[in-house]
Amino acid sequence: MLSVVIATHESERALLPTLSALVAGAAAGLVREVIVADAGSRDATVAIADGRGLPCIGVDASTRGALKGSG
Prior knowledge:
Layout: E1 2-8, H1 12-27, E2 31-38, H2 45-51, E3 56-58, H3 61-67
Parallel strand pairs: 1-2, 2-3
Helix pairs in contact: 1-2
């Protein structure tokens, strides 16, 4: 089982397709949880996560870089 952390910042357009891509894995029992780690989005990113019942944690820029593997 996998836990998926999605690093976001102003990602409202990309978040829905990303979440949709995880549905099959969740239905098959491969994806256990999805967490959105947001770096202060001002668009609808957090609202989209909240609307789907996903935990959304706020992160600062250095943590966001680490989540993306560039830190």
